[in-house]
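Progress note, project year one: complex with zinc ion.
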Amino acid sequence: MNRASILFAQTTTTTEDTSDPLDFVGDFFDSEEWLVIRNVTLFFLVVFWLASAYWVYKDARRRIDDPWLLAMAVALGVFPPFVGPLLYMFFRPPEYVEDVRERELEIKAMEETLDVSERCPVCRAAIESTFLACPVCTTKLKDSCRRCKAPLEPLWQMCPFCETPVESPRAVENLSG
Ligand SMILES: [Zn+2]
Ligand SMILES: [Zn+2]
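Model obtained:
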C-alpha cells in the first residue's frame, strides 16, 4: 500500500463509522422510495408540461387567425416548459377571433341599415328622406300630399302636416272595384 491508498482507506472508514445525519440523507437518495418519488414527480411534471402546451394550443386557436402566429404560440407553449405558457398569457390577443368577427358583422349590418335609408334603391345614389324622386335616376321614391305637397311615408294613411287623408292607388282600386 502506498501513502495515497492508506489515506483513502482511512477517510472511507471514518465516514462509515460516524453517525452523521447526512448519511441518512445519502441513504434516502439511494433507496427505492426515492426512485419512486422521483419518477412519479417526473411523470407529473411531464403530464403538466404537455397539458399546459395543449392548453396554449387550444386557447391560441380561438384567439389567433394567422397560422404562422398560431404555430409560434404553440411553440412557445411547448418550450420553455411552464414559462412559455406564462409568457403566452401575457402577450396573447385579448379577444376571441369569433367575437371580433361577430362584432365586425354587427357593424357591417348596422352600416347597411343606415345605407338603406340614405340611398336610392335603384342606383344607390345618396338621397335625403324628404326627396320625392331620386335626382340621379329619376326613380319615384315617395308620394307627396295632394294638398301641401309634403313627402309621405308609404305606410302613412294621413298627411301629418295638413291632415289630408292619403289616397293610395290600391284603396282607390278597391273602392271602384
Ligand atoms: Zn336613383
Ligand atoms: Zn299635407
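Residues 119-176 form one domain.
Residues 11-15 have pLDDT under 50 and may be disordered.
No further modelling is planned for this target in the current period.
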